[in-house]
Amino acid sequence: TGAKVTVDLLDPLTFAGLLVGSMLPYWFSAMTMKSVGKAANEMVIEIKRQFDANPNLLIPNHPDRPDYDRCIKISTDASLREMIAPGALVMFAPIVAGVVFGTKSVTGLLAGGIASGVQMAVSASNTGGAWDNAKKYISKGAMDELIGQLEPETVDGTGKVQTKKSQIFKAAVTGDTVGDPLKDTSGPALNILMKLMAIISVVFAELFMAVNQGGGLIGPYVAAAPKVATAAELLLMNTVAMPAAAPAVVGSAVAGPTTIFAVFVGGALLGMGALAAGQRAAKPSASTIKSVSLTEPLLVARAAGIESTPFQGAARPAAC
User: What number is the average pLDDT over the span 269-297?
Assistant: First the structure.
């Protein structure tokens, strides 16, 4: 329309959108991190199943080959299935905010998502890279001297430090397990979150304005109240020689108690939905239920014991 539009962060609807938008990158990152863990768990279960079914796979240069196609299918299926919920979160958040709470809520949502998403992406990339590089740093033996002093049991008879048997290395592996999805999944994906939310808002801007002229479904229930002018507005009024008797009131509608109540109700519903989704995600999946055998130690390659063992289906080797 060509009219000058300003965003007031002190407006209740805008401020509520700002809070929700600031929360979205953390919710999105948690969902992607959990998805990586679930996919990795499915892969571990499948690999252990193949080792249990055919112990000859543990023998170097044995003609029996693993079922690589099955592992690839697990990875590709998980990459598509696990991104449905994060994608829906990013796409529906601005639409719900715009249709229900109006354009003011969308402006706050985008501002909060960008401000929080930028620092979250930088933090995830840097911390994930630090954890990953720490494991590589320890693996190449840079801390062998310290490991030998703190954990003398890792030093063999020749005086060489068995780095991978140390607790320091195991801690680094744990950090790398978290760092890899941080720097390779959650960090880069936040760029998509920020851009897609903005594009969705632009595409559906006409729809938002069609709902009560941008006021959203709660527009008719928002109380109109006079807004007392700020110090800057009073100074501007004096500059243009406004009569002294004129009241220092700007005739714009602001949200009243009804709007604030609606915002809190919406926030409560969103919180309960997130809690329900979290509890549902915490339930053991079908793949986890089938992984009861993971409580047992994985097979250890002992060529002397299984080199001559023929393939016997699901039978386990005697020497483990």
Answer: 58
Cα–Cα distance between 137 and 208 in angstroms, integer? 52
HSE toward the beta carbon, residue 152, CA cutoff 13 A = 1
Bridge partners of 249, per DSSP, are 228
Rounded alpha-carbon distances, angstroms, from residue 18 to 91, 109, 120, 221, 259: 17, 5, 16, 21, 15
Other beta carbons less than 10 A from residue 84's beta carbon: 10
Phi, psi (rounded to 5 degrees) for 250: -105, 130
Task: Give the Å distances, CA to CA, from 136 to 40, 96, 143, 147, 163.
Answer: 20, 45, 11, 15, 12
Beta bridge partners of 161: 155
What residue has token string 């009024």?
237
pTM of this prediction exceeds 0.70? no
Cβ-proximal residues to 262 (8 Å cutoff; 6+ apart), any chain: 101, 218, 221
Tens of pLDDT, residue by residue over 34-58, are 998 898 899 999 999 999 999 888 8
Give the span between the Cα atoms of 115 and 104, in whole angstroms.
17
Q: Dump the DSSP string for 213-280.
A: GGT-TTGGGSPP--EE--HHHHHHHHHTT--TTS--EE------HHHHHHHHHHHHHHHHHHHHHHHH
CB 58 within 8 A of CB 299: yes
> For tokens 């110090």, what's the residue?
231
Under DSSP, is residue 305 helix (H, G, I), strand (E, B) or coil? helix
Between CA 117 and CA 89 the distance in angstroms is 14
Residue 303: both structure tokens together: 């060529």
